[in-house]
Amino acid sequence: MKQSTIRVGLVGSGFVAKFHSLAYNNLALVYNSTLPAVERIRLFDVTTELAAEGAAQFGWQEATDDWRNITRADDIDLVDIVAPNYAHAEIAVDAARHGKHIFCEKPLAHDVASARQMVEAVFQTGCTHQVGFVYRMWPAVAFAKELIDTGKIGRIIHFHSRFLHDYGLDPSLPMSWRFESQKAGAGSIGDIGSHAIDIGRYLVGDIVRVFAQSRTFVKKRLIAPPGLSNAFRRGDSEIEQLSEYGTVDVDDATDMLVEFEDGTMGNFETNWAAAGHENELSFEVSGERGAIKFSWRHANELLVHSADDPENLNGFRTVIIGPMHPNAESFGPVPGLGMGYTDAFYIAMRQMVESISRGKAASPNFIDGLKACEVVDAAVRSSDSGKWEEVNHNPPL
Ligand code: SOE
After folding, report:
1. For residue 303, what are the β-bridge partners?
2. Whose CA is nearest to atom 11 of ligand 1?
């Protein structure tokens, strides 16, 4: 039976909470009301003040400083977790045990054991679960998948991806959970690398071995109280008053060679201290009959080369993304109008809400989240050991 209203609780009010809230608020408008209504019931943060501020700013009916008022509440159908990585598992497992559907931001968890617990919990209850790998659903990326699946570039022989930011270069950014391995699990390879790994898995297949080298460039950061300890806050007078330092023990940058299950070779580069780069997610897939290139700098384009083209037209053609491409159908009738980061969350939340209402599985889901955590874990082990490390894929449930 189709569910007509989905009541959501949001666990966290950090910067991505805005994008989730915008999506829930406008789904009906973007998708012409073909979806169940969504009610933004309750938002959690760690203090009553932060929760009240978040609820008011992002338009949630109520605020709470206890996430159990969301995971255990009778008036909530969907628990959306945008809390720090280390908190995901406890919240998700509790939500699953109380019969909720769950959307969880990436990476699924800070370590493999927690991610595995989350997978077990959702499989026990049979709820709908989705992980926030929004880039694989992005129209140009979903179209790349279509081209690969229909044989346009032939058998894949190489995959390359980079995900770069430069905010981590700034030594005045305060300490936050993102810079602590106990809380984040890993640094750039977990935070942004998990997106790139997910795209690699989506387009090519599972990764079985990795060889990684990681570095931390800024080794100490000022400790800030909750609310200020936001890795993206800079040049703030309150931050200038801080004096105590904490140790950064996650990677700022990781270079990684990988081998996919079918033998395809690949490499990944993740770095949040890469001067001049802002959200530079890019990838290239090379096949025996063609190749595909994507960069978030030109997020509404896909570069496609096909060996079927006449020799005198050799090279990459620029495909302009428009309503004829997957997941872009509802964003304006004219190709080239362009979509942006906010739209990625409409696409993700639409799938979550639709999957709940139809009682079907969502994708990417917690299994995809677990598999990305397993690759990140192997990367951390490899950087420590200086050797190739196997990816320990947990047996399927
Ligand atoms: C910060 O590195 C960040 O916000 C990531 O956490 C997101 O997943 C990515 O989409 C943009 O960069």
Report:
1. 293, 318
2. 279
